[in-house]
Design a protein that fits this description.
Blueprint lengths: L2 E5 L5 E5 L6 H12 L14 H16 L3 E8 L2 E10 L7 E8 L8 H16 L5 E4 L6 H9 L3 E12 L2 E11 L2
Parallel strand pairs: 5-6
Antiparallel strand pairs: 1-2, 2-3, 3-4, 4-5, 6-8, 7-8
Length: 181
């Protein structure tokens, strides 16, 4: 089980680790806080129940055991303040993985996302044999995510118009790739 302490740019000690079922309540609070944030950059736009989160966590921990997925949470004082994940695509696309990341608003721009993704990529190279390409799909308004991905070496390869609809307005989603082979 992966566990590592990092130091944020402001000196805050953050613990990065893989989640367990005991994290379900904290993850539910984290997701629900993000879901109420305008232009949060994640695909969830309404609150979820603890039971929904438990089901998601249970299924995803099972996929982790099969080396099809890796999830990391960032915690501060025992509270989840971020998470990121990579999942392997299936069948003839299984040389590609897709990532997602979310950080609580008050912890952004401190280097936590960069550290999380770097550790995630190291774990993916070690555990997800045959993975060659990592993809990210930031929503057009998520300037911070796009900058983070570019900093880590991702290149924009395409975009999907009208991919997301929030409050009656359409937004593009970019497709960015990082070759790791």
């Amino acid at each position: 089980m992966f566990k590592k302490e990092i130091i944020a740019k402001d000196g805050t000690k953050i613990l990065l680790r893989e989640p367990t079922m005991r994290d379900a309540e904290q993850l539910t609070k984290f997701v629900n806080k993000l879901a109420t944030e305008r232009h949060n950059g994640i695909l969830i736009n309404k609150r979820i129940s603890l039971e929904q989160e438990k089901k998601w966590l249970r299924n995803n921990i099972a996929e982790t055991k099969k080396n099809n997925k890796i999830i990391l949470v960032a915690t501060y004082n025992g509270c989840v303040i971020g998470n990121c994940e990579i999942w392997r695509k299936k069948y003839i696309e299984n040389h590609r993985g897709e990532i997602a990341i979310a950080i609580s608003k008050e912890y952004r721009k401190r280097g936590i996302g960069t550290a999380m993704l770097k550790e995630l990529f190291k774990l993916a190279k070690k555990r997800m044999k045959g993975l060659e390409i990592i993809e990210a799909r930031p929503i057009s308004y998520n300037i911070g995510a796009k900058a983070l991905y570019r900093k880590l070496g991702f290149k924009k390869v395409s975009e999907i118009p009208k991919a997301v609809k929030e409050n009656g307005k359409y937004y593009k989603v970019g497709i960015m790739q990082l070759y790791i082979k």
